[in-house]
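Subject line: Sequence and fold of a protein, written as structure tokens
Body of memo: The sequence and its backbone structure tokens, given next.
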Amino acid sequence: MPKEKPLFYDHRSMLKERVGVAGVRSIDLVRLSKRLEKAQAKLKLAAADGSVGWLTVPERRADCREVKSLARKMSAGLKTLVVIGIGGSDLGAKTLVRALKPASRGLDVRFVGSNTDPEEIADLLRTVDLKTALLNVVSKSGGTIEPMSTFLLLRDRLMRRVGRKSHARQVVATTDRTSGVLRTIADREGYATLPVPDDVGGRFSVLTPVGLFPAACAGIAVDGLLRGAVEVRDSFLSTSVGRNDALNFAGLHYLGYARRGQRITVLMPYAARLDLLSSWFRQLWGESLGKEINVDGRIVGHGLTPVAALGATDQHSQIQLYNEGPFDKMITFIEVGRMREDFSLPNPFPDLEGVSYLAGKSFGEILRAERRATAMALEDNGRPNGVLHIPEISPETVGGLMTFLMLSTAVMAELLDVNAYNQPGVEKGKRIISALLGRKGFKL
């Protein structure tokens, strides 16, 4: 029996031939081939020489072994993992845990530190017994206000619960190997540590210890995540333009943006367990592509606005806009071939046609029909949309799917001629916050 592909991208309804004037002309995608080949070649070289770190992360098996060993050691006898992070330091891990956590093994996982709302922190303290909790504070520098302020409070409450000397056995710091405030604290207090790689930015760090440690503590097979990532990455690097799904995804979005003014990118999984994938992608796409200047220093003001949606839920909130609103959106659905669990419907009212037609149908079958119907309606209304298909939700497919989206983002940045790996607009806001809170050396 042939092995199933971890994913494939059906882009036919992104084309003018299917949806009319709002779609991309096939000839324009062909004419973009040379630029797509150039972007692919650049990433292939970066994977070979290690100059773009996230491309080589799946081969860093020593990090994976360290993560699994520490997860087993630190979680023994405990019930809850509390991950303290923000942005790239928690969105990837949230996505993995939401999508893949087994029901019957691993620690319960809670996330905090992405917002300094005191009521959220109070809710955590009311519902989690810190005596049986493991804190994982994630910050490369230790200078990010939201997670560090949260950590300072939770550390204090943990010490009150278990004692000053014992608390260090329940803290793991994921941070820079050698420098930064959190590294200094970890060394001083004797906390176990995991590295944030120097060559991997936060929003590309999901398959580093940043995302793998919470996943391992949750009972997820992290080796499977890396296998799926390698398969999709290697397929991207070896598949020619025209048959390369990530190149097609990026090329179509670039042409829609540049030629049709389609500045909104919607990601809409038809699977509740993939809902946080859209939030992770929102940061990846938005921060990587939204740039005032290009790599040559010219002002360009590029960027596509990412929108997170969920099927079938948002058929009843956003789809009206997508069908009849402005032609400024490109929509990507994610369809899952097989659900981990499913149910067939009974037929208690055979005389009522309004419900009896559902008899024998499974929820998965209904969900796939809803996705198809939504796509068909959009196509009839001339709205560009594509579908990412995965056979199931598993560590391999999720690792592959997230790698696909990172590759597509990197190619899109090459087409826009912007730096995918910086975020000067974020850094400016951080400096202003520090000044407002009276940090020494920071001025408004």
Notes: The CA atoms of residues 169 and 191 lie 7 Å apart.
